[in-house]
Design brief:
2 strands; two-stranded antiparallel ribbon; elongated; mainly alpha
């Protein structure tokens, strides 16, 4: 069982997935900081000093923090758009690599001999 787990854990796909999750978490923190510390204060100023994170409705003892929900939606939109731009850039880069013309195939020895024979026959005319 330990051998099977080791095989599973060290497969390339599992390692790639783990790396993706770690990088995604770090990327999420960067975007969250961008939203909370840069964009939301600007949006708050544009909307007359409104801070979304403080918006809430109190009903009895319960506080419904709809501002936090709005903040989460803005975070999601910015993260999704950032990932979209990142994937688009990678796709464009890959297309440029694929569009590079491949070297013309080297003719086989038979083709080379036939070409030489053809050229000799043309010269004899």
């Amino acid at each position: 069982m330990l051998q099977e787990f080791k095989k599973f854990a060290l497969k390339g796909n599992v390692l790639d997935l783990a790396i993706g999750v770690i990088i995604g978490g770090a990327f999420g923190k960067i975007v969250t900081s961008l939203v909370n510390d840069v964009l939301m204060p600007i949006i708050g100023l544009l909307l007359g000093g409104v801070d979304f994170s403080g918006l809430q409705i109190t009903i009895g003892d319960a506080a419904i923090k709809y501002g936090a929900f709005i903040q989460s939606i803005v975070d999601f939109i910015i993260i999704a758009f950032s990932i979209f731009l990142f994937i688009k850039a990678i796709t464009r880069f890959k297309k440029k690599e694929e569009e590079k013309p491949a070297a013309p195939p080297v003719p086989s020895s038979e083709e080379v001999l036939l070409t030489e024979i053809r050229d000799i026959l043309i010269d004899k005319k």
